[in-house]
Amino acid sequence: MTQNSEHYLVSWSLDTKRTTEVTGRTLQTAIRKRRPEEGLMLHTDRGVEYRGSEYQKELHKQGIAHSHSRPGKCIDNAHMESFFHSMKAELIRNTTFHSAEKLKYALARYINDYYNRKRLHSGIDYYSPMEYERIAA
Predict the structure, then answer these.
(1) 113, CA 20 to 30 Å: which among 58, 88, 121, 131?
(2) Strand pairing partners for 41?
């Protein structure tokens, strides 16, 4: 989930399965961190975990509008596709993680410390997402 800056990752999770429980927990973390104003739009792909009734109820309760990618149109979710491309190139490719815990630790460092705080993004005038958000506020 992103807010204010389309490049800032507010919440993420890693699990062995895509479930509504995991997705709901991730949404709740993002809501707690950001306390979004009513009218925020959340864009996702068409995964069943995003279309489930409990997830939809929570979005409605929070006043969050939900947008879905069109079937077969990954370009509709270009910001996340770009993030995954960067993460694979900068962290995953040619790396072996010997446990889920080591992968989760590496992802946490990459997302929370590097991607959000230090990595310069051309789409936001070569600021890091956190710096851009600070300046824009």
Answers:
(1) 58
(2) 65
Q: Locate 59 and state its tokens.
A: 């979005």
Report the alpha-carbon distance of residue 38 to residue 121 in Å, rounded: 28
pTM listed for this prediction: 0.83
Letter for the amino acid at 30? A
Yes or no: say if 31 and 54 are a contact pair by the CB < 8 Å rule: no
**Whole-Å CA distances, 66 to 46, 55, 92, 135:** 11, 10, 30, 28
The C-alpha atoms of residue 134 and residue 137 are separated, in whole angstroms, by 5
Q: 33 has which bridge partners?
A: none
CB atoms within 10 A of CB 85: 10
Tokens of 68: 């879905």
User: Which domains does the chain carry?
Assistant: 20-136 (3.30.420.10)
